[in-house]
Automatic annotation (TrEMBL):
Family statement drawn from the similarity comment of this UniProt entry: Belongs to the thiolase-like superfamily. Beta-ketoacyl-ACP synthases family.
Name of the protein in question: 3-oxoacyl-[acyl-carrier-protein] synthase 2
Any Pfam family the entry gives: ketoacyl-synt
Keyword set, alphabetical order: Acyltransferase, Fatty acid biosynthesis, Fatty acid metabolism, Lipid biosynthesis, Lipid metabolism, Transferase
Ketosynthase family 3 (KS3) domain residues: 1-410
UniProt superkingdom: Bacteria
Reaction equations catalysed: (9Z)-hexadecenoyl-[ACP] + malonyl-[ACP] + H(+) = 3-oxo-(11Z)-octadecenoyl-[ACP] + holo-[ACP] + CO2; a fatty acyl-[ACP] + malonyl-[ACP] + H(+) = a 3-oxoacyl-[ACP] + holo-[ACP] + CO2
EC number(s) from the headed UniProt entry: 2.3.1.179
Lipid metabolism in keyword set: yes
Residues forming the catalytic site: 162 (for beta-ketoacyl synthase activity)
Pathway: Lipid metabolism; fatty acid biosynthesis
Molecular-function GO terms, alphabetical: 3-oxoacyl-[acyl-carrier-protein] synthase activity
Organism: candidate division WOR-3 bacterium RBG_13_43_14
Keyword Repressor among UniProt keywords: no
């Protein structure tokens, strides 16, 4: 079976507009969560989010083209630009029909949808933009990335709520592993910060209401957590078949060795009791990697800061890893950047890759008092951990019962 490695990364997050700044700020335990500035929140019960800051795509891309694309595609384009440049791949030198794009997005063009619906109500059907549909559909991430770089390999978008980005990476991994492509551009993007979406998530009581102390609002696994914090951004990684990468002397960050995808078949929003679906996803990723649970040294958890997700994810880890769970390092990147929904799995996979490569693991911010129902693992609290880890897992768990686990390995020849 063909081996698959990571050769490039790009990030756009509430704590940085590239990989370098995002990673440095995570290691410094800085939060990107604050009061929303994109629109008036005076009538909203939730007033905080993780916004991307100082993002000006019109300085790099054709403004006319950008007007035909929603913000979530702008994010995907910028993260992919960085990832391709970082990989050093010269697309002119390769068969572009062997390079594909699988990209995740949980919701799509909410901003354009809201704007056009208001126009529809006030001015009638004839005033709705003919670009509404292509601007709002989630698959335009994968579609436009392929159009922009003229890539003819496998191309589609994964839409599985908060697991979208992880599913995209897993599917792209399989495309290369099974010989359908030599390289894949993959990841996830989301731009959900709109008045309508904020109201929807807030009214289902999913969001934290710590409006007066936004920097303390996202607190995965903490006894006093009260919901997740919405966020926006994108993450892209470049996957290549190992020999394809070595032939062009590419730098290699890490190797992806296993992927587990399962369904809860239980509830629209609540995870299956005990995290049974998440446990099976992790077990499948480990099995495909050809290793044992005790070989895993670190898990970048889904860790949303919600009651059921946090305790059931930890329960799933403890059930799967047994006595070894107490030695297993666990953190949640969402504690500093919030929950990027369909982009979360892509960003968190990138963080896991950086940790495997550097041996540095950021703490979970605001984990002041571990919930008794979230104990049983080695939570990274307070300070950076420095340790050599050979295998790690990133979990992504979405509304609808979608579970995805990605197993990666520190790269060695």
């Amino acid at each position: 079976m063909r081996r698959v490695v990571i050769t490039g990364m790009g990030m756009l997050t509430p704590v940085g507009n590239d990989v370098k700044s995002t990673w440095e700020n995570l290691l410094q335990v800085k939060t990107g969560i604050n009061r929303i500035t994109a629109f008036d929140v005076s009538n909203h019960s939730v007033k905080i989010a993780g916004e991307v800051k100082d993002f000006h795509p019109e300085t790099k891309y054709d403004p006319k083209t950008l007007k035909r694309l929603d913000r979530f595609v702008h994010f995907a384009l910028a993260a992919t630009d960085e990832a391709i440049a970082d990989s050093g791949i010269d697309l002119e030198q390769h068969d572009r029909s062997r390079i594909g794009v699988i990209y995740g997005c949980g919701i799509g063009g909410l901003r354009v949808w809201e704007g056009e619906h208001i126009k529809f109500q006030k001015q009638g059907p004839s005033r709705v933009s003919p670009l509404l549909i292509p601007m709002m559909i989630p698959d335009m991430t994968a579609g436009y990335i392929a159009i922009h770089w003229h890539l003819g390999g496998p191309n589609y978008s994964t839409v599985s709520a908060c697991a979208s980005g992880a599913h995209a990476i897993g599917d792209a991994f399989r495309m290369i592993r099974y010989g359908d492509a030599d390289a894949m551009i993959t990841g996830g993007s989301e731009a959900p910060l709109t008045p309508f979406a904020l109201a929807g998530f807030s009214n289902m009581r999913a969001l934290s209401r710590r409006n007066d102390e936004p920097h303390r609002a996202s607190r995965p696994f903490d006894r006093d957590r009260d919901g997740f914090v919405m966020a926006e951004g994108a993450g892209t990684i470049v996957l290549e078949e190992l020999e394809f990468a070595k032939k062009r002397s590419a730098k290699i960050y890490a190797e992806i060795v296993g992927y587990g995808a399962t369904g809860d078949g239980y509830h629209m929003t609540a995870p299956a009791p005990g995290g049974e679906g998440a446990r099976r996803a992790m077990a499948r990723a480990i099995e495909e990697a050809g290793i044992k649970p005790q070989d895993i040294g670190y898990i970048n958890a889904h860790g949303t800061s919600t009651d059921l997700n946090d305790k059931y994810e930890i329960k799933a880890i403890v059930d799967l890893f047994g006595d070894n769970a107490r030695k297993l390092m666990v953190n949640s990147t969402k504690s500093m950047i919030g929950h990027m929904l369909g982009a979360a799995g892509a960003i968190e996979s990138g963080v896991m890759i950086k940790s495997l490569q550097s041996g540095l693991f950021h703490p979970t911010m605001n984990l002041d008092n571990v919930d008794p129902e979230c104990q049983g693992v080695d939570h990274i609290i307070g300070e950076i951990r420095e340790r050599t880890v050979d295998y790690a897992i990133s979990n992504s768990l979405g509304f609808g019962g979608h579970n995805a686990s990605l197993c990666m390995k520190r790269y060695t020849e």
